[in-house]
């Protein structure tokens, strides 16, 4: 799952946007940014718990942020939603030129539902045009 990567990427972005040099300061900045930009309220402590767990290598199946939090972190990272984040990540996974598309499946599970997203990626080389 991508949750670990999303949380760690959000903290990395917060680190670049704030003069603070501790994870607590990054979490403060992140919580404040999520509120100001997305009107999403989350505590610094919650963000730190996810960050610490993912840095310590906790299995992602044991620690699963809720769907709303994932959506908001994706927005903070510059994506309009989680699906767009997944599409971008799939395209970055080294899909080679091929007639056969490659499938990437991601699962998002909440308390009420389980959502699976499958993305088919097919890359074709386009002949370059000479511009005179």
Blueprint (SSEs and pairs):
Layout: H1 3-17, H2 23-38, H3 44-55, H4 67-76, H5 82-91, E1 102-109, E2 114-121
Antiparallel strand pairs: 1-2
What does this structure look like?
With 132 residues, this protein is of the alpha+beta class. It has one domain (3-121). Helices cover 48% and strands 12% of the residues. It contains 5 helices and 2 strands. It has a two-stranded antiparallel sheet with strand order 1-2. Strand 1 (102-109) and strand 2 (114-121) form a beta hairpin. The longest helix is centred in the N-terminal third of the chain and has 16 residues, at 23-38. The radius of gyration is 18 Å and the shape is globular.
Give a short summary of the structure:
With 132 residues, the protein is α+β, with helices and mostly antiparallel strands.
């Amino acid at each position: 799952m991508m949750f670990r990567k999303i949380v760690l990427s959000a903290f990395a972005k917060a680190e670049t946007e704030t003069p603070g040099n501790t994870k607590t300061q990054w979490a403060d900045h992140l919580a404040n940014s999520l509120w100001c930009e997305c009107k999403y309220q989350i505590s610094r402590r919650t963000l730190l718990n996810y960050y610490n767990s993912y840095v310590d290598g906790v299995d992602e199946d044991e620690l699963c942020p809720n769907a709303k939090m994932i959506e908001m972190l994706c927005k903070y990272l510059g994506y309009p939603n989680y699906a767009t984040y997944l599409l971008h990540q799939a395209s970055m996974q080294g899909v080679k030129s091929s007639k056969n598309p490659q499938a990437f499946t991601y699962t998002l599970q909440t308390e009420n539902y389980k959502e699976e997203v499958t993305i088919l990626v097919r890359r074709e080389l386009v002949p370059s045009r000479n511009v005179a």
